[in-house]
């Protein structure tokens, strides 16, 4: 059964969506590709407690790796990109070109960027760790200020960086 809950975070409210308590969506309040309201399922206060706990630890600087079962919905290519994103180490970044090359598809930079932008499980599938080839912060569905905050948090900059 699909359910959702909304939790507070230093970057604003986060909507967690689960299929039988397995995380399939994590959405910021404002984002470029929001899910349809009917795709969220029933609102259940306190659902996805383990996800909530691990996110709290992440934002407190106490967790650098998530150990949650995930069930993102996407095309086979999108799933391969999102899997590759999970391999980017905490506090590190990769370019879209790096991700495309790691997938064995060096000419698929735009397709990687599109899949990155459609990532349904922000933060835990760390699309914020993907930057432009020139090192600039580009293309984040939750806004560049949130991307900068998350990267600063992971670099040891703490929660006071932006919000």
Automatic annotation (TrEMBL):
- State the source organism's domain of life: Bacteria
Hey, what's the signal peptide range on this chain? none
Is the Secreted keyword given for this protein?
no
- What compartments host this protein? Cytoplasm
Task: Indicate the residues that form the catalytic site.
Answer: 127 (nucleophile)
Provide the reaction this enzyme catalyses. a 4-O-methyl-thymidine in DNA + L-cysteinyl-[protein] = a thymidine in DNA + S-methyl-L-cysteinyl-[protein]; a 6-O-methyl-2'-deoxyguanosine in DNA + L-cysteinyl-[protein] = S-methyl-L-cysteinyl-[protein] + a 2'-deoxyguanosine in DNA
Q: Main subcellular localization, coarse class? A: cytoplasm
Keywords, ordered alphabetically: Cytoplasm, DNA damage, DNA repair, Methyltransferase, Transferase
Q: What is any Pfam family matched here?
A: DNA_binding_1
**Residues passing through the membrane, by range:** none
Domain (Methylguanine DNA methyltransferase ribonuclease-like): give its ranges: 4-72
Q: Which Gene3D superfamilies match?
A: Methylated DNA-protein cysteine methyltransferase domain, Winged helix-like DNA-binding domain superfamily/Winged helix DNA-binding domain
EC number per UniProt:
2.1.1.63
Miscellaneous section: This enzyme catalyzes only one turnover and therefore is not strictly catalytic. According to one definition, an enzyme is a biocatalyst that acts repeatedly and over many reaction cycles.
| Family per similarity comment | Belongs to the MGMT family.
Question: What does the UniProt function comment say about this protein?
Answer: Involved in the cellular defense against the biological effects of O6-methylguanine (O6-MeG) and O4-methylthymine (O4-MeT) in DNA. Repairs the methylated nucleobase in DNA by stoichiometrically transferring the methyl group to a cysteine residue in the enzyme. This is a suicide reaction: the enzyme is irreversibly inactivated.
Q: Which protein is depicted?
A: Methylated-DNA--protein-cysteine methyltransferase
């Amino acid at each position: 059964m699909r359910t959702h809950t909304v939790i507070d975070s230093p970057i604003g409210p986060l909507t967690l969506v689960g299929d039988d308590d397995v995380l399939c969506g994590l959405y910021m309040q404002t984002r470029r590709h929001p899910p349809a309201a009917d795709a969220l399922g029933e609102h259940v206060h306190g659902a996805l407690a383990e996800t909530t706990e691990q996110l709290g630890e992440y934002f407190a600087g106490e967790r650098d790796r998530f150990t949650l079962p995930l069930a993102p919905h996407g095309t086979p290519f999108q799933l391969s990109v999102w899997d590759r994103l999970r391999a980017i180490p905490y506090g590190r970044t990769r370019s879209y070109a790096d991700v495309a090359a790691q997938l064995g598809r060096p000419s698929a930079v735009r397709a990687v960027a599109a899949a990155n932008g459609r990532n349904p499980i922000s933060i835990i599938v760390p699309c914020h760790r993907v930057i432009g080839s020139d090192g600039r912060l580009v293309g984040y569905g939750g806004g560049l200020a949130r991307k900068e905050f998350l990267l600063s948090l992971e670099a040891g900059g703490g929660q006071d960086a932006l919000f």
